Automatic annotation (TrEMBL):
This is Blue (type 1) copper domain-containing protein. It comes from Nitrosopumilus zosterae. The keyword Metal-binding applies. One of its GO terms (molecular function) is electron transfer activity. The lineage of its organism: Archaea, Nitrososphaerota, Nitrososphaeria, Nitrosopumilales, Nitrosopumilaceae. Residues 26-104 form the Blue (type 1) copper domain.
Length: 274
């Protein structure tokens, strides 16, 4: 048996963080974020404990405890954003399952994107920016993957995970994700990396995403409606005829009471009703 070569994290080519979410004794919540992490040989993986409970990460599956930690293990990671890292080189294994030795019902997976003979089942994937603050991502995978699970991950240029969603492909194996990017979190960078993770064995499709920092609306123009409640049946806004009471919605949006996605959906409702 050939074991993966574990080296000091300082020598790794790339660094990825797996967050340990607050512990949920009911087992219903995923402990590790992301659930599956695609990496390249030599990458460094850091488990960051965002919990108050201690955890210890070991390779393997809890059903076979005799082999736990054979490939890698961390020290006990105490709570309070403490962390522990390993680096993995691909030698003979496509990926590694791991679990928390203290809470063995919580499991995760790491797999190599640069392994030989990896499948490529993504037939189409693309993105577009809608109404300045909505990121729409869609595509199609092989038909036999319909109704199976996928995980969508988006990283910024510093490999910080800023978006994760676990869903099922549609029955026709298509997918479409609509993401509100009006939050200031999306204004700190312009270059993002999407990783679409799915399948058994696991595979990943990556795509670069460019989001201009100036996509956020200037909400000050909505605030003027907070003072404008003169009686009238309707008014024009961005060439859309809206009922007078919608001025309150504009005011709320200007004060960040509603999200960009909610606001755009409201506008589209009236636009499509014309």
């Amino acid at each position: 048996m050939i074991l993966p070569h574990i080296v000091l994290s300082a020598y790794a080519e790339n660094s990825w963080i797996i967050s340990i979410n607050p512990y949920d004794s009911q087992k219903g919540q995923e402990l590790f974020k992301p659930k599956e992490l695609p990496i390249f040989s030599g990458d460094r993986i850091t488990w960051q404990n965002n919990d108050s409970t201690s955890h210890r990460i070991v390779s393997g599956v809890p059903q076979h405890p005799d082999y736990s930690g054979t490939f890698f293990s961390t020290d006990v990671i105490s709570g309070g954003e403490n962390s522990n890292s390993v680096s993995l080189d691909f030698i003979d294994y496509a990926g590694y399952y791991y679990f928390c030795e203290i809470h063995p019902w919580y499991t995760g997976k790491i797999f190599f994107e640069d392994r030989p003979n990896i499948l490529f089942s993504t037939l189409d994937i693309s993105y577009k920016i809608l109404n300045q603050n909505i990121l729409s991502i869609g595509g199609l995978v092989e038909s036999d993957l319909g109704n199976t699970e996928y995980e969508m991950l988006i990283y910024d240029s510093k490999n910080n995970l800023i978006y994760q969603k676990i869903k099922l492909f549609e029955s026709d194996a298509s997918f479409n994700e609509v993401i509100d990017i009006s939050d200031s979190l999306w204004n700190k960078d312009e270059n993002y990396l999407l990783k679409l993770v799915y399948g058994v064995p696991s595979e990943s499709t990556s795509m670069q995403i460019k989001i201009s920092k100036n996509t956020t609306h200037d909400k000050s123009k909505y605030l003027e409606f907070c003072q404008d409640f003169k009686l009238e049946d309707s008014f024009l806004f961005e060439e859309i005829r809206l009922p007078n009471w919608f001025k309150k919605t504009l005011c709320w949006h200007g004060n960040d009471v509603t999200t960009e996605k909610e606001f755009v959906n409201s506008l589209n409702f009236f636009k499509n009703s014309l």
